[in-house]
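User: Please run a holo structure prediction.
Assistant: Happy to. Please share the sequence and the ligand.
User: Here you go; the ligand is heme C.
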Amino acid sequence: MGLRLKFNVVLIVCYLLGLGVSVFPFYYISRQEVVEQLQSQINVLRAQALAIRKYTSEEIQPLLADFSTIQFLPQTVPSFSAQTAFRNFREHYPEFFYKEAALNPTNPADLAEPWEQELIEKLRAAPDLEKDVSFRQTDAGTYYTVTYPLTIRSESCLACHSTPDKAPASMVALYGPKGGFGWKLGETIGAQIFSVPMSVAEGRIWRNLALFVGTASAIFLLLLLLLNVLLNRYVISPVLRMAKAAEAVSMGDASVPEFEYPGADEIASLSRSFNRMRRSLDSAMKMLEK
Ligand code: HEC
């Protein structure tokens, strides 16, 4: 194996090993960053949902309380307004998902689906859990899903969610006496579920990774090319010339011109030593011939 091949093989193997080792942390950090971005989007969405809930209970509910005894207005219910506002929001960003899912909901549309039930049960089993984060696989791809518990913290909720006879008659007339009752103080009755698709984020991770590998490889190939040119110019080509001259001299051809490699590096010093040795050999031969 020639010097050039040896150098190239060793460097390429080292580069591939280095790349292999660094690609994993790079992917991991990239993914972490993307997930943090998704989480901050969800934080904004949640703050918005909570703000709408608060606006409804502090501004709308008191305003229409009297009217609600005659005809129940879902528009005065925080959960209704938060979810309706989110549906409008989805006209602009259909990929986002938000639901206030409950195990025993007032509005059947809020009934938790099996995967949502699992998340709610998880939160019910661990009352101290502030939120649950999961990556949900669906036919449409992976979804980053964050679930926050909906726990009954205020007595005021029980005015409508304890038993049908305590709830406003107009509400029972509209929703029926079956769902949304029997909730207890301190109980986690459902969850706010936010989902965003990972596809866009994953695309970004792969783009970053391709950019990283591409840039590193371009720099490496450039350095490899430069190294080959330098190796050829300063080592291989002068050594080959000296080897050729040594071969001719050893075969008795004294007509080969001396090859002096200019400079102060090791090859130049070798070429000078070689010429000196050759001159000594010439004069020794001449002395023998006499
Ligand atoms: C004035 C009666 C009333 C009060 C008070 C009330 N709710 Fe509701 N709640 C409803 C109605 C009606 C719905 C169904 C709204 C809809 O159609 O989406 C509902 C829906 C919900 C839902 C969505 C799941 C479901 O049952 O459909 C949650 C969660 C919820 N309420 C939690 C609370 C909490 C927590 C409080 C206390 C802070 C509270 N509610 C106070 C009437 C009330």
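Residues 74, 77, 79-80, 100, 102, 105-107, 110, 150, 152, 154, 156-157, 159-161, 171, 175, 180, 190 surround heme C (CB under 6 Å).
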